[in-house]
Amino acid sequence: MAQDNTLQQLKETIISGWPDMKKEVPTCLHPYFLVSDELSVQDSLIFKDQHCDIPFSVHTKINHKMHKAHT
After folding, report:
1. Following DSSP, what letter does each residue of 54-68 receive, concatenated?
2. Local structure of residue 51 (DSSP, 8 states)
């Protein structure tokens, strides 16, 4: 669940705008700071360039659906 909280904070920060200094963002967002200019939110999904960030909490469900579509 902490992952989901981090992604929610990340989404809010992307939408509202990143501060100029890394120390001004929550510690959980520090790994994203260097790529902040590559991040965007579209339809409530977080993208890095053209790649969608899938929350870890739904990886298994998404993988199952993707593999099911190939059968």
Report:
1. --GGGHHHHHHHHHH
2. E
Biggest distance spanned by C-alpha atoms of the chain: 48
- What is the Cα 8 distance to its own chain's centre? 8
Residues 6+ apart with CB under 8 A from 17: none
Tens of pLDDT along 51-71?
A: 776 666 666 666 666 666 665
Task: Give the helix, strand, coil percentages of the chain, each rounded to 5.
Answer: 60, 15, 25
Q: What is the mean pLDDT of the chain?
A: 82
Tokens of 40: 């965007």
